[in-house]
Design brief:
This protein is an alpha/beta fold.
Length: about 675
């Protein structure tokens, strides 16, 4: 009998020919290290740390079985024995740590960002510029052969199994639905024909790889596109997949082109576990559920509720390689929780940069960023307990330095204390919980409500001083602004988010950066968060039971609560507001505000503020003057660095370090702050 708080999560899973040590599957995630074998030593180290951290079964990022299936030109592919040999360094590293690893076979089909892409029919996807070639009837056979050969090569390369990617709108998924499959041969038409591709792949694959090899099939259970699969079809396919020899069925939610967020931070935790649960009892093999499961208690609950036999987590294991061990040792409060921001993982993958993690800059950098014990203990002062200061102080203390962390406010967190108040950004609380605990475990001496002076620091005779004092809001200096500030008509975002100052029913938000968007979301929702209420969230995004409507997309969507305020979101640039937000999340923020009827206006000049509202004009010629009659104007016009401590310290002969917003305020974000703080701390 387990004494752990997570008995379901930590129970071994007997697969007949092999046993997984627990119910955690590390979901497939492209890191950018898969594409060149010269990066395999890094990939090996990255996976080895997760294996050491206790993961039951690791699944690699996707490898294409052939050129046609490439995600992008020269992207990861496994199609030769020579290449399979190179994989040994990865599989050996994982096995040395007692882990198991499966290779994901990913054929992109029409999602391939290259001219050689193929699909069921010649229909371009809305998210790629290339139109795929429709594979011939014989060509389908060739693609199947490539899948089967890839699985054999994976076995040769030492993998414990493969995952066949059948969801997210990739090649196999494209055959399954009439939206993308208009074929008239035996691979199109009736569902029995459309689902023949995955069934043939799995049947022939099982024959070739033998009985003692894990085959996970990632099954699209909720397509979230028009003309997606019906629930009856999903169940039919699941049964056929089992019969064809799959070992585990993993859950796929939403095609990449779906206009419903599926993994972003504003998606409720475990929002799609009910979909996997619908399939329980229909098949005998283990089911794995996925999406927005980021904490052991959430995972445990999902399993205890009988939604699935395993949980897939990808990003949470980027954020903390030791997730499983910490849960097993009842140290869940020490887990560095994935906040589902996508900023350093998915957004990097789309920009063809190596993935990492906003809250854990070591992710995918395990071979070069290490927090080794310090050779010589130093006394170090860190000023400012925002993300940069917190990361720096805790890494320094972890390495054995004696660290004083000074914070002028009454709590740690800096800008995160505003972010956590935005509906849909509740996960930021977790990062603050993590750092609070990390301060305790590493022994950082935290001094709250302490506005330290340069004199104090000089007197303190520290070996090193780190300035992480952050930023102050930029003043846009609009005519009439000062007088309106006195009357409370003009507020800064800090007044709104931290100080709870009253805001009227009509509002102009000056500045459409990340914070302008956040403030707008806060104001239209009046603080209520659909993220904390699955039913409301599903209504807003039009998600429904696939047994009721194909693909789980509700007709007549969206059903949105009316906005609490009328908001104008303004910027001077003529470009689309929100263009600078994250690649994978910007569209969600824009869509959320559009649903709440926020008017986003670019290309404006702020002419004047008076008791009636904000006067704007348009373009360089300052034409078409328009008075926005608003009760309140909220300034979100960026930030300036706060570093007044620096000059006196330099004058006294000290050489302070500068990190985070205090260093560079423009486009400062938490990713850069935590990365910079951690990297500096690794070197002192
Ligand atoms: P920001 O992204 O730099 O945006 C500042 C906004 O103010 C811009 O829209 C800019 O647009 C406007 N602006 C700049 N100078 C101005 C001036 N003198 N007068 C009037 N308007 C001016 O800064 P932020 O919104 O404060 O965000 C700070 C950082 O936090 C950013 O890096 C942001 O990415 C990050 N953040 C990210 C998220 C997220 O969801 N990923 C959320 C919150 C914050 P114009 O110059 O065109 O007017
Ligand atoms: Fe999670 Fe953000 Fe880290 Fe990605 S970058 S793993 S979403 S915390």
């Amino acid at each position: 009998m387990s004494t752990s708080a997570y008995p379901h999560l930590l129970a071994p899973l007997d697969l007949g020919f092999t046993t997984l040590r627990n119910r955690v599957l590390m979901g497939s995630m492209h890191t950018g290290l898969e594409d060149r074998s010269k990066h395999f030593p890094r990939l090996a180290q990255y996976f080895a740390e997760r294996a050491r951290g206790g993961v039951g079964l690791i699944v690699t990022g996707g490898f294409s079985p052939n050129i046609a299936g490439w995600v992008s030109p020269f992207a990861s592919k496994l199609s030769s024995s020579g290449a399979a040999k190179e994989h040994r360094q990865i599989t050996d590293a994982v096995h040395r740590e007692g882990g198991k690893i499966a290779l994901q076979i990913l054929h992109s089909g029409r999602y391939g960002y290259h001219p050689f892409s193929v699909s069921a029919s010649r229909i371009k996807s809305p998210i790629t510029p290339f139109t795929p070639r429709a594979v011939s009837t014989r060509g389908v056979e060739k693609q199947i052969d490539a899948f089967v050969r890839c699985a054999q090569l994976a076995r040769e390369g030492g993998y414990d199994g493969v995952e066949v990617m059948g969801s997210e709108g990739y090649f196999i998924n494209q055959f399954l639905v009439t939206h993308t499959n208009k074929r008239t041969d035996e691979w199109g038409g009736a569902y029995a024909n459309r689902m023949r591709l995955p069934v043939e792949i799995l049947t022939r694959m099982r024959e070739k790889v033998g009985k003692d090899f894990i085959i996970v099939y990632r099954l699209s259970m909720l397509d979230l596109i028009p003309d997606g699969q019906s629930w009856e079809e999903v169940v039919t396919l699941a049964k056929a997949v089992e019969k064809a020899g799959a070992t585990i069925i993993n859950t796929g939610i939403g095609w990449h082109e779906a206009r419903v967020p599926t993994i972003a931070t504003s998606v409720p935790r475990a929002a799609f576990a009910w979909v996997t649960k619908k399939l329980k009892g229909e098949v005998g093999i283990p089911l794995c559920t996925t999406n927005r499961i980021n904490a052991p208690d959430v995972a445990e609950q999902v399993l205890a509720d009988g939604c699935a036999d395993m949980v897939s987590m990808a990003r949470p294991l980027l954020a903390d390689a030791d997730f499983v061990n910490k849960a097993a040792q009842n140290r869940a409060d020490e887990i560095n929780t994935c906040i589902a921001c996508n900023q350093a993982c998915l957004d990097h993958a789309f920009q063809l940069k190596t993935a990492s993690c906003l809250v854990n800059p070591r992710a995918c950098h395990e071979t070069e960023l290490n927090y080794e014990p310090a050779l010589q203990e130093k006394r170090i002062a860190v000023i400012g307990a925002g993300p940069a200061g917190l990361a720096c102080a805790t890494v320094l203390a972890e390495r054995g330095h004696v660290v004083d962390l000074f914070e002028s406010g009454g709590e740690i967190g800096g800008q995160f204390n505003m972010a956590k108040r935005i509906p849909g950004k509740e996960e930021f609380h977790e990062t603050l919980r993590y750092f609070r605990r990390k301060i305790e475990t590493t022994g950082v001496k935290l001094h709250l409500n302490r506005r330290i002076t340069a004199e104090d620091l000089i007197q303190g005779k520290y070996d090193e001083v780190v300035i992480a004092t952050g930023v102050s809001p930029r003043d846009p200096k609009i005519k009439g602004q000062e007088a309106a500030e006195q009357s409370g008509k003009v507020l800064s975002y800090v007044d709104v988010l931290l100080r709870g100052k009253p805001v009227g029913k009509t509002v102009a938000v000056v500045g459409a950066g990340g914070i302008g968007f956040d403030v707008s979301e806060f104001l239209v929702g009046d603080g209520h968060s659909p993220t904390l209420d699955l039913k409301v969230w599903e209504k807003e995004w039009g998600v429904t039971d696939p047994a009721l409507e194909r693909g789980g997309v509700a007709r007549g969507r969206p059903q949105v609560e009316p906005p609490a305020r009328q908001v104008y979101l303004l910027q001077r640039k003529a470009s689309k507001p929100g263009a600078g937000l994250g690649k994978t999340t910007g569209w969600i923020h824009r869509a959320a505000l559009q649903m709440k009827k926020v008017e986003m206006i670019g290309g404006v000049n702020y002419e004047a503020i008076d008791e009636r509202g904000l006067l704007i004009t348009y373009g360089e010629k300052r034409e078409n003057a328009q008075l926005l009659e608003v009760d309140t104007i909220v300034l979100c016009s960026g930030q300036e660095p706060l570093r007044e401590l620096e000059a006196p310290l330099l004058a006294a002969g000290l050489k302070p370090h500068r990190i985070g917003g205090a260093d560079v305020a423009s486009e400062l974000d938490a990713k850069r702050a935590i990365n910079q703080g951690s990297r500096l701390a690794a070197t002192l």
